[in-house]
Amino acid sequence: RRAPAAAGAMSEHLDEALDTVLERIAAVARRTFGAASCSIALLDEAAGELVYRAADGEAAERVVGLRLSVARGLAGFAASAGQALIVDNVVADPRFAADVAERVGYVPQRMLVTPIARGDETLGVLSIVDPPTEAPPGAGLELAGVLADAAAAAVELAGVADPAAVAGLGPLAGPLVDLRALGEDERDTAAALLRELVAYTRRRNRR
Amino acid sequence: MKPAFSEAFEPERLDPAPTLGLDEPITADWAWGGSTGAGVKVAVIDSGIDADHPAVGGVAGGVAVEYDAELPDRVRFDEGPHGDLYGHGTACAGIIRALAPDVELYSVRVLGSSLTGKARVFAHGVDWAIEHGMHVVNLSLSTTNDDWYGTFHDLADQAAFTGTMLVAAMANERKSSYPGEFSSVFSVAAAEVSDPEHVLYNPHGPAEWGATGIDVDVAWLDGATITATGNSFATPHVAGLIARIVAKRPGVTPFQVKTILAAVAANSSTRRP
Description:
The structure holds two protein chains of two kinds. By secondary structure, chain A is an alpha+beta fold. Chain A has helices spanning about 1-35, 60-65, 75-80, 95-105, 140-160, 165, 175-180, 185-205, and strands at about 35-45, 50-55, 65-70, 85, 110-120, 120-130. Chain B has helices at about 30, 90-100, 120-130, 150-160, 230-250, 255-265; strands at about 40-45, 60-65, 75-80, 105-110, 135-140, 165-170, 185-190, 200, 210, 215-220, 225-230. The model of chain B has no long low-confidence stretch (mean pLDDT about 95).
């Protein structure tokens, strides 16, 4: 049966697209703030962990894949409280050194952490590492919040077609995956046909 | 880097506080002179408090509130000592202790590793504080969950009419949050105020009070001290000063305290030491 394979293919595609978007957001954040690095972690609620998905700048390749408990640390606080925080001497927090700096091999001085959220539901955390004390004009908590919102939108869109939902499409999953490879006109036609079918079925069921 | 809502307190933007035109203006000395907050119960609704931190000097009691799907109200209350998961609550407690050394500090821990039902847990934490006769409640947290707007509004009303001062941080980003925005609550944002005993008054809201919250040295975990910025560090400054006012005049109402605080605000034309 094609449906499970199609579901897997669709979610894999969306996963890759999400990684790309998050990497771009991390890069823009790092450049705009003039920071040493920026990283984006997403919440794995079942595991109670923040999983670092994308990073740009210093030690980026060591950050991606890092898993931190959401029950501790600056990023954990941002996730739990849904609140941003700026800390100027991060290494004074003894747990930070152990949790992050030692594993990543980079010891930051200053950090801005901001939650990535949909409403009050935490999706992840955006961390800006070593932004200069005199931030470039416009680069403040508000901009960090906007970038976090962009990341949230990307996460939400990718999650709309999560494997369980896609598997529920049954025989539709296969053709929908095929449509992805066809042109815009074909997709518009398919959508129009589906809408007509749904409307017809509703009218018929009412009689 | 300044948090959202702090721009209202910039010198070019802040109007002088409206004055009552009293023959003998209210002074800071009248408001809290000689008061150390003795007899005042202050609850810190946050990540917990590390009672052993030198800047905190002990905690009188408290409760850890957690989401529990099995229970009817879906929250569980664990009374008894608990620590601080993140350091944030300890930071707030340290600031309050520094301003009002003799208050009784209570920790209401509403943050934890479970991120389910945050607004519900937070609301129950505020309710616990009101029910347990706290005089001042420091809320360096807020919720943006509109479904709970009504509940938090009811809690704010209840607090106002039972003499419980809710002191809440505005969000660090530009978004609506509760209960900070409600008019009866003391809503606080960080301002460029170097004197920890100075507050600024903005009658236009939603951030009504400005206090020290930028590059503040605060207590953190394991006895450490870090330097941090956020509206949540301005909030305990205001809470500490309110505790002093309440200690000096037990039974004073939240609206009376607002009048007193506005009169002694640093942007008050009648401010006297």
